[in-house]
Each structure stands twice: as structure tokens, then as C-alpha cells.
From TrEMBL:
Protein name as it appears in the record: MBL fold metallo-hydrolase
SUPFAM superfamilies referenced in this protein's UniProt entry, alphabetically: Metallo-hydrolase/oxidoreductase
InterPro entries reported in the protein's UniProt record: Metallo-B-lactamas, NDM-1-like, RibonucZ/Hydroxyglut_hydro
Any Pfam family the entry gives: Lactamase_B
Upper taxonomic lineage: Bacteria, Bacillati, Actinomycetota, Actinomycetes, Kitasatosporales
All copies of domain Metallo-beta-lactamase, residue ranges: 19-228
Length: 248
């Protein structure tokens, strides 16, 4: 596959894979990888690292916003093949091990099959390995509070709701927020463009998703890098407010 790699700030790259995104934070030769796409995105993931002058061996850590298959796809591959640590919020660590699973079920998809785009999206998910099981054998909680000592100095911020341990990653110096699925700018199952929430059936706890928009709205930044959809430019606070208005 051919990925689309876009530099959005110094050392910060948004990569579009198969209907999902990941982010590369580069500092010298080393990088932090935030999310890893679907299992079927692995070739594109490696291609994107090469495109920014890096390699799997240069990945200092993989940070996961949440442990759904479209974000976790190659995390275990990087951990097992290259010794890359995989970090998540403590509440998401057992989810990454697949001690339990918090994601839309086949029944949820069938009940929502009437929605525009849902059936083509579901077929696509199967094709790119979205129904495969790729648990992370030894996921790790963040090693410290506050900014992580990794390329980009990302700050994890707990934003539960989509899953219990969902985190966004704030880059305050760059004015960037990596928002995962807590706030997106598009999706194959949505006709909306711009800041929005995913359809309700994707969320584990909708009330907490809405509460997390308040947390997101308090973060300074004007570049939003979502888990799905294009980069969004504009105040993060306004993006969170727009998503809330659309969800009401």
C-alpha cells in the first residue's frame, strides 16, 4: 500500500493508513510512534517510518491511544521483533493483553447496518485484519507522570469513554493534540466532516466520552491529529465544542 505521510509541525507527522491514522514524532534519529494502524497496515507503517528517515529499530516506544485493532495492529510485532516497549494508560494495559475486549461487537455492527457506510466499512475491516487477534504480550503502563522522556515529549491525558483507558497525547510546545478516537475529524461511517464523535455504537461509555470532551477542551493547541480523518487546524477547545454540539 501507499501511505500518505504529512508533516504538520517540526518533527511531527500524521500518517493515513487504511481508514485509520498513526503519528510519528521524530527527534534526531529516534522516533515515538503513536498508534500503529490495522494489522494490514504493517507494510504501510514500515513505509512511513522510512519516509521520515527512520526505521523500526529507531522507535524508542510505541504509545497507544487505546487498544482497538485499528490502532494496536503492529504493536506486538514491534515489541517482539524489535524489543520496542509498548505503553498505555494503566486501565488500558489489560485491554491490550486482551484480558477483556471493549469494542463494537458483530451484533452492534449488524444492528447499525442501515447506517450509510457501515457495511462497506465492515467489509474493509475484515480485509485489513480488523477482526484478527493481535494482543500485546507485555504492554506497559506509562513510566512516569507528565511529559514522557521520548521524542516529542508527549503528555498522556486520560480521556475515558471510547474505552476505559483511552488517552490523548498532548504536545504543548508544538500546539498539537493527538486525539485518537476521543475526537475525530471524519470516519467511513459518517457523512460529517470536521470535529465530531464517532457513532455511539463504537463507544464503551458515551457519558464518559462527552465528559472527556471537557478535558480535551482545556488543552492548549491549534493542530488536531485524530485517529480518523484529516488533520484539523483551529483551537482544540473549539473542536471539542463542535463535536459536543453535533452529538447533542
Amino acid at each position: 500500500m501507499t501511505t500518505h505521510v504529512r508533516q504538520v509541525a517540526d518533527g511531527t507527522y500524521l500518517v493515513h493508513g487504511h481508514n485509520t491514522n498513526w503519528v510519528i514524532l521524530k527527534d534526531g534519529d529516534a522516533v515515538t510512534l503513536v498508534d500503529t494502524g490495522y494489522p494490514g497496515d504493517r507494510a504501510g507503517l514500515l513505509e512511513s517510518l522510512a519516509a521520515v528517515g527512520s526505521s523500526p529499530d529507531a522507535v524508542a516506544a510505541v504509545l497507544i491511544t487505546h487498544a482497538h485493532n485499528d490502532h494496536l495492529g503492529s504493536a506486538e510485532y514491534l515489541r517482539a521483533a524489535h524489543g520496542t516497549p509498548v505503553h498505555l494508560h494503566p486501565a488500558e494495559v489489560p485491554h491490550a493483553r486482551r484480558d477483556f475486549l471493549q469494542q463494537a461487537s458483530i451484533g452492534d455492527v449488524v444492528r447499525n447496518a442501515w447506517r450509510p457506510g457501515v457495511l462497506p466499512w465492515a467489509v474493509h475491516v475484515i480485509r485489513v485484519g480488523g477482526t484478527e487477534n493481535h494482543p500485546v504480550t507485555a504492554p506497559e503502563p506509562f513510566p512516569a507522570e507528565g511529559p514522557l522522556d521520548l521524542p516529542g515529549r508527549p503528555v498522556p491525558v486520560h480521556t475515558p469513554g471510547h474505552t476505559d483507558g483511552h488517552c490523548v497525547y498532548h504536545l504543548p510546545d508544538a500546539g498539537v493534540l493527538i486525539s485518537g478516537d476521543a475526537l475525530v475529524s471524519g470516519h467511513a461511517t459518517s457523512r460529517l466532516k470536521g470535529p465530531q464523535l464517532l457513532p455511539d455504537f463504537f463507544h464503551h461509555d458515551r457519558a464518559r466520552v462527552l465528559a472527556s470532551l471537557d478535558v480535551i477542551g482545556r488543552l492548549d493547541g491549534d493542530i488536531l491529529l485524530p485517529g480518523h480523518g484529516p488533520v484539523h487546524h483551529g483551537p482544540v477547545r473549539a473542536a471539542a465544542e463542535q463535536a459536543r454540539d453535533r452529538a447533542s
